[in-house]
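Example record

One chain of 197 residues, shown exactly as stored in the release files.
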Amino acid sequence: MALQVVILAAGMGTRLGKPWPKPLTPLADGRSIMQQQLENVAQVFGDEARTTIVVGFKMEMIMEAHPNATFVYNEIYDQTNTSKSLLKALRASHDSGVLWLNGDVVFDSRVLERVTDRIRGEKSFVCVNTSATAEEEVKYTVDARGNINALSKQVKNALGEAVGINFISRHHKAVAIQYLDECADNDYFERGLELAI
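Predicted structure tokens for this chain:
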């Protein structure tokens, strides 16, 4: 069965101040962030991965750079945040679970290797770290069983940061869609996940 992968790349990346979408930002090795993401996905999942990119801001640049992907257009990208981009992608997805990445996440392919069993087992997850956090990061806390029980930029006494690599199982997808639909246009997707918890 194919693995559905979504890259959220519709945003304007205004803080970066560049004339291109943030996922096309070049890294030190010459690849763009998105190229590194796609190569990491291909390295770990091979031909099994089917990638959909949610586009908006300067979508032509992303579509030209990665013509083999499938695209979902967030036509109101300048008025919405990641909750609505993810909602569009999940609605366009097939029955199985979906691995999704924020379009600005730089990561080592070993991160995907570590979560492969959870993906194959259709177990939802949010990749996190235990680094010190500041105001801008999406933070989390966990319950006694180790399950995330709070996930937002406003979390107090955070254990670390959600790093922007996530999986929603086919069993949880309908609930995620419901709560993402209820999110305000300017909410991050983490708000929908927090409501679903």
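Notes: The first strand starts at residue 3 and ends at 9.
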